[in-house]
Amino acid sequence: MNLALWIGAGLLAAVALTGGITKTFVPVEKLAAAYGGGWTGDAGAGPVRTLGILELLAAVGLILPAAVDIAPALVPVTALCWVVLMLGATMTHGRRGEFALVALNVVYLALAAFVAWGRLGPESF
After folding, report:
1. Is 125 contained in some domain?
2. Interior/surface letters 31-69, b for 16+ CB within 10 angstroms, e for the rest
3. Number of helices (H), then strands (E), in the chain
4. DSSP H or E run through 27
């Protein structure tokens, strides 16, 4: 179970890192032209950059606290925050009719819920 939770957290951290780097450093015009990025053109640069920074922090928060054993309770808190973020992403893509991305967001949400449940319960630090 512990291994599955580490793998889940690692996968989520990789997704968060990729999304965070993209949203933080790629111009919004280029993001808006990419598949699934149309919402960024509607949102503007400020909110997109803010989400990117939050995703970078999530990537760190899913791994680093447990890896260095400093405030490991931040891992399930970060996973719960990721659940909230994925709820927002699911609603945004759903409103835009991007149902393949809705399904992907639901998978990420379920994985984050699993990590949060596991780290708050049976395999807490």
Report:
1. no
2. beeeeebbbbeebeeeebeebbebbbebbebbbbbbeee
3. 6, 0
4. none
Give pLDDT tens digits for 19-74: 999 999 999 999 999 999 999 988 999 999 999 999 999 999 999 999 999 999 99
Please state, as a whole number, how many other Cβ atoms lie within 10 Å of the Cβ of residue 114.
16
Distance of alpha carbon 123 from alpha carbon 13, whole angstroms: 19
Cβ neighbours of 122 (radius 10 Å): 10
Total domains in the fold of the chain = 1
Residue 45, domain member (yes or no): yes
CB 86 within 8 A of CB 79: no
Query: Is residue 28 one of the residues assigned to a domain?
Result: yes
Q: Look up the domain containing 83 and give its range.
A: 2-120
Contact by Cβ (8 Å): 80, 116: yes
Angle, CA of 111, 117 and 118, to the nearest 5°: 90
